Amino acid sequence: MAEELTALESGLALLYGTFLTYAASEEGDDPTTISKKELSQMMADQLPHIAGEGMAEKVMEELDQDLDGTMNFTEYCSLITSLSMTLHIVVTEHLSQ
Ligand SMILES: [Ca+2]
């Protein structure tokens, strides 16, 4: 009998699943990395309250460490870390007011 995932385990699975879904969303390109177009679609679908128009281009420029023009899983983790840190800063500032 499989045990139910905890909230954190579910969150990790969701983060990884989201990467895999968008990496493989366009046919004909590498299904293990997120292209600029896939990133743009992911941000529009999944980060509508955070990501503005044209932000995907800026994010790719900042996080594409190996300069191959796509986002691999390590680079995606940098995006998640950056978003998590932003959330932490916002919450910390709110709590200190
Ligand atoms: Ca890259």
From TrEMBL:
One of its GO terms (molecular function) is calcium ion binding. Residues 51-86 form the EF-hand domain. It comes from the Eukaryota. SUPFAM superfamilies: EF-hand. This is EF-hand domain-containing protein. It comes from Muraenolepis orangiensis.
